[in-house]
Amino acid sequence: MNFKVLVEESRNSILENIHIGHIYGVTKDHQKTFQVGNRKHLTLLRSALKPFQAIPAIYHRVPEAFQLTKKETALLMASHRGEDFHVEQLIQLMRKIGVTEDDLLCSPTYPLNPDARDELMRQNKPKRQIYHNCSGKHLGMIALAKVLKADIRHYDNLNHPVQEEIRKFISILADQPISNSKNIAVDGCGTPVYAFPLSLIAQLYLNFIFTSSFEDQKLQETLFTISQLMNEHAEMISGTSAICSILLQDPNIFAKGGAQGVYCFVLKKEGIAFSLKVLNGSEEVWPLIVAEILRQINYGNEQTIQKLDSLTSQLIVNDNKKVVGQKKTVFKLKVKKR
């Protein structure tokens, strides 16, 4: 697998834990690459796929059909944390589309945001589908099914018109058909998810932002609309003190993460896309890794790096609130010029 150690955790200089994985970056002109580990590592995109899954809904004018606000539309590509401001918009979204929670095929859960979850549990309130971090995506798929005049049931089926549309647009951005069933799996929320080598994932993200190679002007406008929505309403894409929302507050960054340690981002002015995979699935170390990548390439917005630093402390603090160790990144990007 040719993995590399990305982060070490130690106490009293005794190595206690490591986070291994792979990182790949590429410039839009393909003249420079940045690599740690194996760029060919086959990686399921999980929720990092959501901006791509939203493409057909925007392309086929779902927001116009249901008179959605920009905040409501942003939820179609979100991994929301189920905070009150998310739930408020999701309820409006359901009402406008004309569905109930029973129409959602994602399972009832508690919110991912710890404060929101704990408050509901204190009040002895039940789990709900709308709290699922993928509920906005599911509502977008139902709305697209309605616009396509397709059955809104079984929209998670691989052969449903909604999934066929999603697959069509991913194939366009990947510049290759998705035909190998070995690269298709089922996501945590029940919808199809796709696996690509990290190098192709980085290219997918580049193509999302740098769209001039696409002859379809409507597709170019769709991709711009999605990226703009994600930057303008960063809080809807994830939530309070979450890495996606922090990065998207920087208008130069297009970013999305997924379960089990996959993270992707594009630096627009620099014309660079990065994809990474933490093999133990940890999301906790994402801010450390992304901040270190930005430092190593001399990214100009120091405020963004400082915000990332504030998300995950490099200090290990025990139950008695004493500093007993540290976490540190140990990788070095291997830069190649063509």
Report on the architecture of this protein.
The chain has 338 residues and is of the alpha+beta class. The chain has a single domain, classed as Beta-lactamase (3-Layer(aba) Sandwich), CATH 3.40.710. It contains 14 helices and twelve strands. Strands 1, 2, 3, 7, 8, 9, 10, 11 and 12 form a nine-stranded antiparallel β-sheet that branches. A three-stranded antiparallel β-sheet has the order 4-6-5. A hairpin with a 3-residue loop joins strand 7 and strand 8. Helix 5 runs parallel beside helix 7 and helix 13 packs antiparallel against helix 14. The longest helix is centred in the middle third of the chain and has 16 residues. It is globular. The chain starts with a strand and ends with a strand. The model has no long low-confidence stretch (mean pLDDT 97).
Characteristic terms for this protein:
Beta-lactamase; 12 strands; about 40% helix; about 20% strand; alpha+beta; about 350 residues
**Main sheet, how many strands, which sense, barrel?**
9 strands, antiparallel
Low-confidence runs: none
Approximate helicity band? 25-40%
Number of E-type strands: 12
CATH top-level class: Alpha Beta
Count of the separate structural domains: 1
- Between the first and last Cα atoms, what is the distance in angstroms? 25 Å
Alpha-beta classification: alpha+beta
How would you summarize what this structure contains?
The chain is α+β, with helices and mostly antiparallel strands and 338 residues long.
